[in-house]
Amino acid sequence: MDLKTQHREGFKVLAAAEGYVSRIKVSHYGYGKALYITHPNGYTTVYAHLQKFSPDIEAYVKKHQYSKESYEIELFPKAETLPIIKGSVVAYSGNSGGSLAPHLHFEIRDKSQRPMNPMLFGIDAKDTTNPIISSLYAYPLDGSSFINKSNTKQKLRLIPLDNGNYTTENIEAIGNIGFGIETNDRQDLAANKNGVYNIQTFINGSKNFELDFKRFAFNETKHINQLIDYEHYTQNKQNVQKLFRANNPLSIYKSVINEGILSIEDSTSSVYKIKISDFKNNESWVTVHISGSDKSITKPKTVNTTPYYIYANHSKQLKEGNFSVSFYNNTFYNDFYIDFKVKHDTLVLHKDIVPTQKSFTITYDASAYSNDDKKKLYIAKLVGYKDYPSYLHTKRSGNNLIASSKTLGKFTITSDTIKPQITPFNFKHKQWLSKYRYLKVKIDDQGSGISNYRATVNGKWILMEYDYKTKMLTHDFNDEIVTDTKNNFKLVVIDNVGNSSTFEALFYKK
Fold first, then answer.
1. What does pTM read for this prediction?
2. Per residue in 476-490, pLDDT tens?
3. Do 191 and 166 share a structural domain?
4. Which residue from 45, 80, 131, 488 could staple onto 276, CB 3.0 to 4.6 Å apart?
């Protein structure tokens, strides 16, 4: 649950219940500064994207950061180290990590660390609004299934009814079909699009499928791409949730009969209903009338074949030119023809329209490059309309460059010979900083991206917090590490291929 903070940071974050701090994680990305409190009932509350921790927790964290000389840190305090009283201030809200705007990210996890819907614990929000249904699609699920004489996905026109529900135009179908829906929920006092709480489907009055969003496990996250129509999402940025299982082990499926697939026979008449509910039991319904007709059969769609076929439950290696790609067993959910081409130093590996459940490995033979040039090479994924090279973590083994990816698409080999940029933000050489609380430096890298940085004052390591969104490094003089009047500040920044820049400046402080 994301709690609004009026576009501001620094609100007090109170402990939801008695317990102890069981985990603290500080990272540049993801949850940023995150606090985990374990409670006597075994549940854990999580508070993320924090600006800072309460003074005692902040002191504990900084002690370990200075000991390890690292801003990024993960700690697991003993139960007696940081006890927590219900309602006590444990942190202050912020915008750290991957947060796009100031807010508090709050979770309640069960004993297996699975997040549960916090609304189950009495958190209330005014909601009298029915879930919103944006679009509905019908899917022929094999080569012998058709909807309205088509073997391809069909968008159905939603017809609003006076009671707030929907119907669609009648459809003709034959064979195995399924449906997908784009839906979200809104509360009365906010415009945000939230996920719905429950989706059920019925065929001729009998329930045949249910999605229940009561709790979720993090190790299931990868399967979300199989829950949605992934190709539709990557092409249109719309989340269409499939109302059939489609070889997906997610735990949120309930009461699934025949995988949620409808088998439509000739000369039959069926009524398919979809019920979407939010936590406050506001409901929206869609009704689809289906006529079974073999007259719906026309010529099947043409399957785009390539020389390369992927069997989802087998491993596969593809090789051309200097590139080789290794897919492991069950990298994909389904079998398919994959587009695989190599031209010069660019690899075309299908389009990013097929979901994966594992990473695959890309290897490039760089033996044609000199040793000096080889050190500056990396594997990048080409993203966006302009094919911008985005760095993939690249390892070197002999003459080979090796990287992993979780998405298909275009990849290339590129070189980074440009050093990172370092710019002092709020001070200059030989300046007095006695009235300053913070020392700020902006860092940037136009190629492979920032990998590491190290700052010292008079040879002693100092903690600098890195905000990748603003590209800012910040040191808090309240850490009381800087105690001399004359201070030599030195900052070394290294990018992902090893280019480094050094900045040095003298400042004075009383």
1. 0.91
2. 999 999 999 999 999
3. yes
4. 131
